[in-house]
Design goal:
10-stranded parallel β-sheet, Monooxygenase, ubl conjugation pathway, FBXO31/39, LRR_dom_sf, F-box only protein 39, F-box-like_dom_sf
Length: about 350
């Protein structure tokens, strides 16, 4: 206090008080949720900054799959965020890391049910949703838990499908019936989906020959504005290429295809089907990712000359046979694909 008994304000307080909104918003952007909440208590202006839409448009919610007191609050904090700031959300990524047992998958299912229900009521601006590597065919996912989760996800996509521009369900590992049911939710009441980016790599269980499923091809026919499509080779068929040619030729730019040794990949795809798609989708480029598929005979059956290939990646080149050599495969591939081939050894 001064001699007259009045409070002396700290000299630096005026600097914070006159800080431009753009600078203050940037400071809030770097803070975690708890620090933002504490900062919002400083004054009315900082409290208003706490509710700036720019701070909450992007969100990654991570759930640990291991029982721990440290991670016990993850489920509660996820619901807290959606209830408080879900209306601002535009890009949501959800991760569930290697669930340990059925207790945790049940807790995840209950949390996601509340989260998706709340988000469906409060949000009309969500553009992208990513839920990766759930591996729903594992034993820790009991049938009842899996069914309830898929029901919640389907209901959410039916409501939000008209807003979504990108959907990533990589590694869900579903049956054909389950997977098609979820994808069909995007075109609910509209007969077509306007999603431009779709990632369904390992979306179906590894052993399934999805390419022979009429149900899958019918589902993929509902997509009419795909710019980028990522999927496994066990989904590729002449019918799928025909669908892409008819419904997405004017928009399709990128096709990412993963082929794993465990996936069925012996189907015959006609070169004329690829040629027709390449003629129609003039900007199309195809990226191949092979995992443990190293023999030239198998690669040659897939890498047809009609395909507009941008890159080829050979990954996990480890074999138990000490006499096996990569040289013959590379010798045959390099003349044609020397500018696009990448080899990863492990």
């Amino acid at each position: 206090m001064d001699e007259e008994g009045q409070l002396i304000q700290p000299r630096d307080q005026s600097c914070w008080a006159t800080l431009p909104d753009v600078c203050l918003r940037r400071i809030f952007w770097w803070l975690g949720d708890k620090d933002r909440s504490r900062a919002a208590l400083v004054c009315r202006r900082w409290n208003q900054m706490m509710y700036s839409a720019d701070l909450w448009r992007y969100r990654t919610i991570t759930f640990s799959g291991r029982p721990s007191r440290v991670h016990a609050s993850e489920f509660e904090s996820a619901l807290w965020y959606v209830k408080k700031f879900g209306s601002y959300l535009e890009h949501l990524e959800i991760k569930f890391l290697n669930p340990y047992n059925a207790v945790l998958t049940k807790k995840f299912q209950v949390t996601m049910q509340g989260l998706l229900l709340c988000l469906g009521k409060r949000n009309n601006r969500l553009k992208s949703l990513s839920i990766q590597h759930l591996e729903l065919d594992r034993l820790v996912w009991r049938n009842s838990i899996r069914s309830l989760f898929l029901k919640s996800l389907s209901s959410f996509l039916k409501k939000m499908g008209q807003h979504l521009d990108y959907l990533n369900l990589k590694g869900a590992r579903l049956t054909v019936e389950q997977g098609c049911h979820i994808l069909n939710s995007l075109s609910y009441l509209r007969k077509e989906s306007m999603v431009s980016g779709l990632n369904i790599e390992d979306y179906f269980s590894h052993h399934l020959a999805v390419y022979s499923s009429p149900q899958f091809n019918k589902t993929m026919a509902t997509f009419r504005s795909l710019v980028s499509l990522t999927l496994s080779y066990n989904c590729i068929s002449d019918e799928l290429l025909e669908n892409l040619c008819e419904n997405n030729a004017g928009t399709l730019w990128t096709l990412n295809i993963k082929c794993h040794i465990r996936d069925p990949h012996g189907q015959v795809i006609w070169g004329m089907s690829w040629a027709k798609l390449a003629r129609s989708a003039t900007h199309l480029k195809v990226n191949f990712f092979f995992e443990q598929v190293m023999k030239y005979e198998r690669l040659a059956r897939i890498l047809l000359q009609e395909i507009p290939v941008r890159s080829i990646s050979l990954r996990n080149c480890s074999f138990r046979d000490p006499d096996w050599s990569m040289r013959p495969t590379l010798t045959d591939l390099l003349p044609t694909f020397r500018h696009t081939l990448q080899v990863g050894m492990s």
